[in-house]
Design a protein that fits this description.
alpha+beta, Beta-lactamase Inhibitory Protein, Chain:B, domain 1, four-stranded antiparallel sheet, two-stranded antiparallel sheet, 6 strands, about 35% helix
């Protein structure tokens, strides 16, 4: 991989991380205040919810993830990227925990 290609791949990864940090910071600020109904209005219906006692954990997935072109010498690879995925846990009806995977913007 050339230096230019390495820099391009690193820029893509860092751009995704910055968006994820902003979304995570927003969710952290809504902890204890955002309700499940507010999350559905904001993000649409989740793909799955699991309830256990007073806690309900729901998952949202956006898109299919895709891949990016990464040349390696005379060959190239197209690694799959995880689609942006969010898992929110609501305890007694309000946001108590959040986790993000993939590139959020």
């Amino acid at each position: 991989m050339t230096r230019a290609h390495a820099v391009a791949v690193a820029a893509l990864v860092l751009a995704g991380c910055a968006g994820s940090r902003q979304t995570q910071a927003m969710l952290d600020g809504r902890r204890g205040r955002m309700t499940y109904d507010e999350a559905v209005r904001r993000y649409g219906p989740p793909i799955r919810c699991d309830a256990e006692g007073p806690a309900k954990t729901c998952t949202w997935v956006y898109g299919t993830g895709g891949s990016f072109y990464a040349p390696f010498g005379d060959a190239a690879a197209m690694p799959r990227m995880q689609p942006p995925t969010m898992e929110l846990t609501f305890t007694n009806g309000v946001l108590s925990d959040s986790r993000l995977w993939g590139s959020w913007r």
